[in-house]
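Dear colleagues,

As part of the handover before I leave the project, I'm documenting each prediction I ran so the next person doesn't have to rerun anything. This entry is a single chain, and its sequence is reproduced below.
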Amino acid sequence: TDKKEAHDTLYASLYSVEKSLEIKNTDSKKSERKAKAIEYFTRFPEGEHFYPVGLKVAVAHYEEKNFEEALKILFIVEKTKTDQTVRNKSQDLILDIYNIQKRYTELKDLSAKYLKEASDSTRSKSLVKINEESHFSEIQVKNSQLKPIDQAQNLVTYYESHKGSELGQQAILNALKIYLEKKNLSSFAYWSEELLKVYPGWDKKNN
C-alpha cells in the first residue's frame, strides 16, 4: 500500500542518515536526523519503529536542553510494551530531567513507581539509590523553611522509610544533632538507641 511504501521510504531515509552520522557527525546531519525522526514519529504512530524513533526525537530535544518537549515524548515512549531497552532508557531520561530541574518530589515518586516494575537487580539498585537521594533532597528543601523540631521529625520520617541505608543513617544523625541542640533529651535518647540497633558498631567506627 501507499502508506506502507511511505513508511518504509521514510524509515530507510532516517536509517541512511543514522549510518552517515556514524561515519561523520555533523550538525547538519544531526538536524536532518531530528527532522526525519519527528516526521516519522508524527506520521506513523502505528509504525513498527514508533517507540525507538520517538526516543531519538526525545534525545534530540534533551541534548538541546528542550526538556519539556523531551518529557512530552518520553511519557509516550516509555509506555512501550515490547521494547524493554527503549522503555528503560526513556524512564532514565525522565528521571535525569527531573533531577536537573530539581523536581525532587516527582523524582522520588516516579523512581518508586519504576522500581516496582524493574526486572533486574542492577536496575533495581540504581532506582533505589535515585529514590533515596531524591527523597533526601526533598527533605532538605522542605526543612529549609521549617523550625528545627519539625526538621527533626522530617529526618526521622526519612530514616524510617530508608532504614539501613547510608542516607538513613545521615538523617538520624542530623535529627539527633537537632534534639541535642534543643535539649529534647528523651527524643535524643530514644533515637540514639535506635541508631545503635540498626547500625551496630556505629559509635566504634566513628570515635
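The mean pLDDT is 94. The chain has eleven helices and no strands.

All the best with the project,
I.
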